[in-house]
Amino acid sequence: MVASDEANASAEITRARVNYAVPGLAEEDVAETPLSQFSKWLTEAQMANVPEPNAMSLATSGPEGPQVRVVLAKDIDEYGVTFFTNLDSVKAQDLAQDSRAAAVFAWLAQHRQVRLRGSVVPLDRDVAAEYFATRARGAQIGAWASPQSEVISSRAELVERIRQIEERFPEDAPVPLPDRWGGYRIKPVAIEFWQGQPSRLHDRIRFQSRQADARLDDASAWKSERLAP
Ligand SMILES: Cc1cc2nc3c(=O)[nH]c(=O)nc-3n(C[C@H](O)[C@H](O)[C@H](O)COP(=O)(O)O)c2cc1C
């Protein structure tokens, strides 16, 4: 980008305005439980062809302060939201120190976001193994080969690591779960459903848990409130 392009891009961002002329989120339309409201919106995002609607930005905090990155939610059920990653990555190190995390799903085509926060627990190894077995072989090899979040000298180093791992696991045999790869579950204590509305008067409905380990399908375990936009 040359300097004038940068100036133009910056001016365009400053001017950019999207008016959210879509149906709002009224209290009477919100599902009784956070799980059914999430499922309804996720289905609508899928039907609207939102790219990777299960992608969420995941924030953790650690010695270098907060960090955020995108991961894929692989399951959302009454117990929480699960994702998989390298257990030596920055996010895993952060979570080992401070198990609290926050996440946001942004479904911008529908002017929606879902924010959640809660504590994160590691998934059992057998759950991770079961999921790992469903991944494409290339992704399995990659999980073995990539020291996620570490500095590497070049792409060639990564390619060489992959070659070595491919040699180690014969093509006709299953690739086992790497020791340093696994899953986590975010157990939300708050989930907010945000629907963009005209004139920035957006609808925000937040479920807050009334008790520890509130199941996302238990209406009595949550209270819902409207927040100012
Ligand atoms: C659409 C998308 C999906 C991703 N899904 C995952 C994922 O499920 N797990 C993962 O470890 N990294 C995933 N990543 C890569 C992460 O954003 C990040 O680069 C990586 O996990 C290292 O993060 P960390 O150094 O903060 O631990 C994804 C990135 C994108 C853009």
Descriptors:
alpha+beta; globular; Pnp Oxidase, Chain A; single chain; about 230 residues; about 30% helix; 6 helices; binds flavin mononucleotide
Provide a quick synopsis of the model.
This protein is α+β, with helices and mostly antiparallel strands and 229 residues long.
What's the CATH first level of the domain at 18-125 and 183-226? Mainly Beta
Estimate what percentage of residues fall within beta strands.
Answer: 25-35%
Radius of gyration, Cα only, in angstroms? 21 Å
Major sheet summary line: 9 strands, antiparallel
List of distinct ligands in this structure: flavin mononucleotide
- Catalogue the unreliable spans: none
Write the layout of secondary structure elements.
Elements: H1 3-15, H2 34-47, E1 55-62, E2 65-72, E3 75-77, E4 80-86, H3 90-97, E5 100-107, E6 112-122, H4 125-134, H5 137-145, H6 155-168, E7 181-195, E8 203-209, E9 222-226
Antiparallel strand pairs: 1-2, 1-5, 3-4, 4-7, 5-6, 6-7, 7-8, 8-9
This protein binds flavin mononucleotide.
Flavin mononucleotide binds at residues 52, 55, 67, 69-72, 83-86, 89-91, 148-149.
Characterization of the model:
- This protein is an alpha+beta fold.
- It has a domain at 18-125 and 183-226: Pnp Oxidase, Chain A (Roll).
- 30% of the residues lie in helices and 31% in strands.
- It has helices at residues 3-15, 34-47, 90-97, 125-134, 137-145, 155-168, and strands at residues 55-62, 65-72, 75-77, 80-86, 100-107, 112-122, 181-195, 203-209, 222-226.
- Strands 1, 2, 3, 4, 5, 6, 7, 8 and 9 form a 9-stranded antiparallel sheet that branches.
- Strand 7 and strand 8 (203-209) form a beta hairpin.
- Helix 5 (137-145) packs across helix 6 (155-168).
- The model has no long low-confidence stretch (mean pLDDT 95).
- Bound molecules: flavin mononucleotide (FMN).
- Flavin mononucleotide (FMN) is lined by residues 52, 55, 67, 69-72, 83-86, 89-91, 148-149.
